Amino acid sequence: MIQNLEKIRKKIHKQISEEIKVSEQNGCVLLEGELSDWHSIVNAGTLAVDKQSLGVLNDIKLKGFFEEEKKPDVEDGLYDGLTPDVLIIGAGIVGCAIARELSKYKLDVMLADKGYDVALAASSRNDGDIHVGIDLKASQQKHYYNDRGNRLYDKLSEELDCAFHRTGHMIIFYKKWEKYVIFPLIKLKSKMLGIPGLRYLNKKNLQKTEPGAPSWAVGGVFMPTGGEISPYKFTVALAENAAANGVNVCLNTIIKGIDVENGEIKSVRTNRGMVYPKLVVNAAGVFSDRIAEMAGDRTFTIHPRKGTNLILDKKCKAYAATSMNKSPFTKFADEKQKIDDKGKHTKGGGIVHTVDNNVLVGPTAVETPFREDNSTDKQSVDFIYGKLSRVAEKMCYGDIITYFSGTRAATYEEDFVVRKGIFTRNIIEAAGIQSPGLTAAPAIAEDVAKWAAELLGNVEPNDSFNPLRKGIPHLADMNEEQRNVFIKKNPAYGEIICRCEEISRGEIIDALNSPVPVYTLDAIKRRARPGMGRCQGGFCSPLVMKILAEYKGVPIEQITKADDGSAVLFGDTKGGCNE
Ligand SMILES: Cc1cc2nc3c(=O)[nH]c(=O)nc-3n(C[C@H](O)[C@H](O)[C@H](O)COP(=O)(O)OP(=O)(O)OC[C@H]3O[C@@H](n4cnc5c(N)ncnc54)[C@H](O)[C@@H]3O)c2cc1C
Question: Which CATH class is domain 475-558?
Answer without folding.
Answer: mainly alpha
